Amino acid sequence: MRLHLQRELEKLKQQILALSAEVEDDVRGAVRAMDERNHDMALDVINREDQTNTMEVDVEEECLKILALHQPVAADLRYIIAVLKINQDLERIGDLAVHIAECSLCLCRLPELRMPFRLGDMADRAQSMLKLQVMHIARHLERIADHATNIAEDLIYLTDGRIVRHTPEVSDRL
């Protein structure tokens, strides 16, 4: 049962990372469309909104399925709760990227404006903050899972007197 849960948590991790990459691309595309006054690029971002929303719903459904089927506790439960929260924020960021793209479409119809500052630079900083924060969170959650595995191995020693560290066949069943 534990191996099945770990596989589902890994699938969940891949889903949230894919959503993160999708949203990052949407923000980058929306800002670039605005910066370059590129109508088609703005439309691409707007048209991908349904895909982003579908990915967000898929992540949420996967979280709920894991909660219902496995009733995780401790680190696994914290992981799922964190993914649910991150998922919601990523979806909102995707919505904001669409709003930027929609504004870009309006700007494309107007005579070229001179921007008093570089919005592209601001966007680059925001994207890098998002990417650094999401990657930090993913690394921290992975470490939490590692510590949970160590605790499970210690509990096996406590109850059975067996040392199961560094034995892959046993660790896979945790």
Describe the structure.
- This protein is mostly helical and 174 residues long.
- It has one domain: Phosphate transport system protein phou homolog 2, domain 2 (Methane Monooxygenase Hydroxylase, Chain G, domain 1), CATH 1.20.58.
- The protein is built from six helices and no strands.
- The longest helix is centred in the last third of the chain and has 42 residues.
- The mean pLDDT is 81.
- Under CATH at level 1, the class stands as Mainly Alpha
Shape: elongated
Order of helices and strands: HHHHHH
Structure annotation, total helices: 6
Q: Give the helix proportion (percent range).
A: over 70%
Strand content: under 5%
Summarize the structure.
The protein has a single domain (about 1-170), classed as Phosphate transport system protein phou homolog 2, domain 2 (Methane Monooxygenase Hydroxylase, Chain G, domain 1), CATH 1.20.58. It is built from 6 helices and no strands.
Characteristics of this structure?
single chain, mainly alpha, Methane Monooxygenase Hydroxylase, Chain G, domain 1, elongated
